[in-house]
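Issue: ligand-bound run for uridine-diphosphate-N-acetylglucosamine - logging full I/O for the record.

Environment: standard queue, default settings, no custom constraints.

Inputs:
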Amino acid sequence: MSRIQIFGGKRLYGKIHIDGAKNSLLPIMTACLMVPNAVYLNNVPKLSDLSEMLHILARLGCTVNRQGNTVKIEAKNLHTHIIDNQSAHKIRGSIFVMGALLARLGKVQLPLPGGCAIGSRPIDIHLTLLRQIGVKCHYHKDFIHASYTIRRHRKPIILSLDFPSVGATENIIQATTLGILGNTYIIHGAAKEPEIVDLCNFLNQCGANITGAGTDTITVQSVTRLHGTTYTPIPDRINTGSYLIAIAATGGDVTLTNTIPEHQINLLSKLKKIGAKITTTKDSIRIKMQHRNPFHFNIHTAPYPGFPTDLQSQFCALAAMTQGRSTITENLFENRFRYVPELIKLGAKIDIERNQARIKGVKTLSATLTSNICPSSYEIPNAQNCHGTIVTANDLRGGVALVIAALAANGTTTIENAEYIYRGHQDIVKDFRQLGANIVAFDQ
Ligand code: UD1
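Outputs:
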């Protein structure tokens, strides 16, 4: 078990470089299954979810090498279409393999992805779209078996999503990219997230013919072959958001480099309203927060360009220390408030009613000290003997919310199950230490 310990209450100052986006890299990596030559991906952070995906690709027959932050993937010969239980259960992203393997091999077998900590996460939209293009899917025991014989179509195939699922959009794009020249697929109701645009940019750079990404109608004209390329994914907009929210909570002056302000319009306007000063360049965002207690706010999560569900828990941690009452309404996942009891241990005042958290801001969150040796210096000597309040991460973003709360709280907080946080952050401890936070990591 990994733990992170934080002695909070310090303002943070400095710079952080943002890595490539995990949620872009997962589908881009599976798309590499359709490319028989070498693909070089730059700015790839060392995240447990991405390492799992690379293991899946390697087990399917890809050669995978990492040199620094560049990963080389070569899918010259794939020797199986079967994703084993062990791989698939570790990351939900394994579902993206479906579209790519169907396009490349015409068949795929994978375990049912099942639910996860944030909700049941069904795959009905993925399967409906795949069936609409002629994929035959059936369940046997706990596995999905799918096979696909691509036929020539005289007219465009019209597909439509009832809800703009990010994963289903990415899967159907991959299933239709490689095929018979002249086949056209028009996908209505597509998700518009920047990660979808990134996947399509990557595929187009490999020779695909996809237009409309970033709008709700995407057109894929199949090509018969893709070729290798070198590609740099977009910076992670969720990690950018998490760091901005952290500074809004602790106060300070921090510049995030290698980021795209355009992807954060909703978030930046919210941060300005609660009292942060934001300045941007083409690829950087500077946040200055003078006072510790931001103004209260209301948030409703929604598909892009709406407010991202992946930032609601971090905003809830911030809401816990605002002036006045805030509300957060979660409209995408049914189980995304599991971090709330942990915030309450730090003194947050939060009630949950159905999909809404109602938060009454307090002046300061505080970790009750169980030891009186917690220091206020940069390092945390005897940190393991100085647990303060112990909280537990249950999922990636909820874990980051606990880090934010602990950074702003008085006293020492120990966050258990920090593995969840490392699914999306290469080194969150190093990042916050370089801003001056008293934070250490322990592995057991
Ligand atoms: C992706 C992101 C995740 C983010 C989410 C919403 C990746 C790897 N993950 O997840 O971080 O929180 O988008 O922005 O990119 N749904 C169905 N049936 C389906 C598919 C989805 O009912 O077949 C529902 C889900 O249960 C959920 C909602 O649609 O309630 C959104 O899911 P979706 O957009 O598919 O999210 P993911 O692609 O799983």
